[in-house]
Design a protein that fits this description.
Layout: E1 3-10, E2 13-16, E3 26-27, E4 32-33, E5 42-45, H1 48-54, E6 60-68, E7 71-72, E8 75-77, H2 81-90, E9 98-100, E10 105-108, E11 110-118
Antiparallel strand pairs: 1-2, 1-6, 2-3, 4-11, 5-10, 6-11, 7-10, 8-9
Length: 124
Amino acid sequence: MTYYKVVNNFKSGLRSACTGPKYSVQYIPNEWTSPILKGSKLYVFENLQDANTFADNDSLEIWECEVENPLPFRACVFSDVGQFWKEYAAGLPISGEYKNGFASARLVDRVKLTKCVKPCADLI
């Protein structure tokens, strides 16, 4: 199955789209990438339409990717990322702000970017 990953394309490389610098992951095409925070996951989409809606500006890229262990996840978190993963790992209710997310959103253990399907307009 094909999945889609939204990333920032900085001059220094491909990075997580919506995390602060402390939790940002660097992606290298055709290499497996894991989260840097123990017990956390990476965020992908099962369909390109949801990925395009999530990547609502020209500074974000969308890549086809392979993934490991996809789990459904219907919330997009806008609270402290570190606190979210601590609560998630402990099985606690998630605090902070969130909104209903995308039906095709998945949390995964690892991601391998394979093909850019929507390049960004300009490198950041």
